[in-house]
Amino acid sequence: MSHDNGLGKRCPDCGEPMVDLRSMNTRLCSGCKTEFDWHLAPGQKPLIANNRQDRKEHTQ
Predict the structure, then answer these.
(1) Is the pLDDT of residue 1 over 60?
(2) So which domain of life are we looking at (predicted)?
(3) pTM for this structure?
C-alpha cells in the first residue's frame, strides 16, 4: 500500500500523506488529521468493484 511507505497523496495543508477512507468518500491527513471530501470524477469507475459491475454496464 502506498501509504505504508509515505507515497500517498500529500495533504495540501501540512504535506503529510493522506489516507483514503473510500467507504466514507473522505481523505484523512495522517499529520494534521484534517478531513477532505473525496469523490470520483464524472465517469470514473470505482476502484473496488466486482466483475458484475462491468457486465451490468455492457448489457445496458
Answers:
(1) no
(2) Bacteria
(3) 0.56
Give how many domains the chain has, as a whole number: 1
26 falls within a domain: yes
- Domain membership of residue 24 as a residue range: 8-40
Give the residue, 51 or 30, on which the prediction is more confident: 30
- Whether 46 is in a domain gets the answer no
Give strand pairing partners of 58.
Answer: none
pLDDT for the residue numbered 49: 60
CA distance 59 to 5: 41
Strand segments, DSSP code E, in 1-60 are 18-21, 26-29, 35-37
Answer yes or no: is 35 within a domain. Answer: yes
